[in-house]
Each structure stands twice: as C-alpha cells, then as structure tokens.
Amino acid sequence: MKQRENWGSRIGFIMAAAGSAVGLGNIWRFPYMAGDNGGGAFILIYLGFVFVIGLSVMIAEFAIGRRTGLAAVGAYKSYSDRWTFAGVIGVLSAFFIMGFYPVVGGWSLAYVFKSLTGLMSDAGAIGDAFGGFIGNPVEPLGWMLVFLVFNILIVAKGIAGGIEKAARILMPTLLVLLAFLTLRSVTLPGASAGLEFIFKPDFSEVSGQTLLAALGQAFFSLSLGMGCMITYGSYLSKKETLPNNALIVTALDVGVAILAGVAIFPALFSFGMEPTAGPGLVFVVVPIIFAEMGAIGPLFGAVFFIALTVAALTSSVSLLEVVVAYLIDQRGMERKKSVYSAGGIMIVTGILSSLSLGVMSGVTIFGVGFFDFFDILTDKIFLAIGGMLLAIFAGWVVKKEDLYDELTNSGEKEFGLFNIWYNLIKYVIPIAVAVVAVMGITDIEQ
Ligand code: PHE
C-alpha cells in the first residue's frame, strides 16, 4: 500500500490548519456580520459558540481524521456505511463554498491592483466603483479564474510540498500586515467609538437570527462541519497532541477576526461611517478609509488586500483539498487528475455566481442569485447540520475508548478535560445546534 501523505512538520500543520480557518471568514465576513448584528453582543455570542461548540467539534474532527487516516467520507464510512451521507454532505459543502469563495478571492486580488492604480484618488467614487466592478460581466471573472488557478497549482503539488509550503510563508505575512493596520486604525482621532462598538455589548437587539448568524459564523470561520479538519487531521502524525493543536488553531482564528474588527471599526467610526455596509464593507468602506489617509493610502490599501488574498488562498486550498482527498481516497483517482476535475467544476460554479451579481441577476434559486444561494446554503444550513452530525457521530457511533486513546495518544499525554469534552459532544452540542438552527430558521421566515 502506498504510504499516506503526511505534514512535513508540526508547525507546518498548525500553519495549514490555521491557514484554512483564517480566511475571508475572518476579514471579509466577520466585520460585516458584527456590523450588521449590532457589534459587541454578536461578538460575545460568537466567542461563546467558538470556544464551547467550535473548539470541541474541532477536537472531534481532528481525532476522527487521524484515527481513521481518511478524509471525511472515508472516515465516516469506515465506521458505518449508514453514515457515508454525512461525509458526502461535507464534500457538497466544499463545492458550495467554493461556488462563491473564489469570486470574493478574485475581488480581493483585483483590489490589490486597483488600490495602486487610482481607486483611492476619489473617495466619493469608491462605492460606485465597487458596484460597477462586481456587476461587470468580464473583469471579475478574469480575477476569479486567476485566483482559482493559484488554488489548482498549490493543491496539485500535494500536502507537504504545496499547501504546507505556501501556508508557512503566507500566514506569518498576514499576521504582520494585520497588526500593522490595526495599529494605524486605533491611533486615528475618534477611534474609541469603534472600540466601544465592538467591545461594549448591547443585547437588546439579539434575536434567533443573531444566534444562528453567530453559530454559522463560528463554524464557517473555524472551517468546521464539512470534513475539512477531518481531512487535515488525517495527514497528522500520531505523535501530535490533538487538543493542544485545536486550541492553538482556534485561538489564532479568533485572534485574527478580532484584529480585523479592531483594524476596521475604529477607522470606520473615526471617519463617521456606518458599520452596517454589509458584504461590501471591506471593499467599499476600507478603501474609502484608506483614501482619506492621503498619499500613503493606496499603499495601505494594497497591503490590506494582499493580506486578504493570502488569507483567502490558504482557506480555499483546504476546501479544494476536501474534494480532492475524497476523489483520491474513495474513487482511487490520482491527485493531479482529481485537482483538475474538481477545479473544473469550481470554475463553472464560480462563473455562475460571479455573473449572478450582474448580467445574471435575474436568474434565481429560492429567490436569490447563485452567489447568495451558495453562501446562505452553506453558512446557515449545511455547516450547522454537518457539525451536529459530526458531534452525534463522535458521541454515539465512535467508541468512547477510541476517542480517549486518540486524544491522549494512547494514554501518553494528558487530556484532563476529556469527560467534559465528551459530554459536550455527546449531549450538549447536538441539542444546542438544533435549538439555534430552529430558532434562527423560524425567525427568518417571519
Ligand atoms: N474558514 C474559512 C474562512 O474563514 C472558510 C472555510 C470554511 C474553509 C470551511 C474551509 C472550510 O474564510
């Protein structure tokens, strides 16, 4: 049997897993979700979900991936054929997320160049420029294709050689860039209003929808509920301790989201803008903020969008890898061939969702265009269901001893919180996710 690929080093694994977690979810989505949902209260609820539900599910995904040495579908299937569907939901989620993610990745790439070529010369025109750009039938498609080609090239190179190498260089770059931007933002006059907005919770506006949005954001941002961390865990050496690694990845992910919030809101309030700009927040408000900074603005802008593109890329490669690992493990395909076929489908869905923001805006599924459809379907439905199924599977199908064995490296390492974790996974998380999902969905329908 051919030896399964492995991560080249521990730090490489952490970088790759954190690279998967830290992405558009943290820098593009988190600030606008927080802005739309009232700021501090949303952030607190989100943090609660991340550390109670997300961290536990991540530990379970790592454990199941490494135990079975298989990606999502194979891992479920190796315990019971009846559970194959849960893995398949994960592969489908990867396709759906990749239906819109490369579009935003492409925008980000485009904005690196736009920042340097006059976008910020007229702050008043930036909003219209964004609307015009994403609605254009050709330009964003080109950028999305470039972004997807990067993904295909990296994943075709395999685990240690491609994804890990890229993440090891790109992730630290991102952290440095963000820290730099955050410092700039909090030292602007009037920045404290922005800090108050994110750190002073107001629970009066919290609804079922807020809860579901926070839960979906937690799963999305940590790359959970669709087998991604099962797949990454399956490449991890038996020597590593899983709970520690999960905690580091979670802390990094939260850290970057909060950094992004602290980079954006103080500046936003300092310039007297509204926090509820929606998905355009990063692409409209941030360039305006930079434009107001004078001559240095375009450079700051370019740096910001390089960071965003980098973050997006290390996440999208993990999504592509979920599909590729499935094709390799379950369909016996070669890596390169799997990458090209999965990538090919993603090019088609990417084109559909990019066009849905312009010339194809009339074509809708359940009342929304392709872009929103892919986004809402994964964030609000698939990931929550996937996370709940994973918890039920770990709690009720996998043997408790197996999990204990995996999480303590056969008793060699301590995991003092094992029983608490196990009860969370077995009882609390399935019920909590179901309650939040029902509350959120009934709330939307009203
Ligand atoms: N976590 C990534 C982000 O925040 C998105 C992602 C979701 C990646 C699910 C892999 C799996 O951008």
Topology:
Elements lengths: L9 H12 L2 H13 L3 H29 L3 H8 L4 H33 L9 H10 L3 H18 L2 H28 L5 H8 L8 H14 L6 H7 L7 H29 L10 H11 L5 H35 L3 H21 L14 H27 L3 H8 L10 H28 L1
The chain binds phenylalanine.
Description:
- The chain has 446 residues and is mainly alpha-helical.
- 55% of the residues are buried.
- It has one domain: Orthogonal Bundle (Hydantoin permease), CATH 1.10.4160.
- It has helices spanning 10-21, 24-36, 40-68, 72-79, 84-116, 126-135, 139-156, 159-186, 192-199, 208-221, 228-234, 242-270, 281-291, 297-331, 335-355, 370-396, 400-407, 418-445.
- Helix 3 crosses helix 17.
- The chain is 76% helix and 0% strand.
- The protein starts with 9 loop residues before the first helix and ends with a helix.
- It has 18 helices and no strands.
- The longest helix is centred in the C-terminal third of the chain and has 35 residues, at 297-331.
- The structure holds phenylalanine.
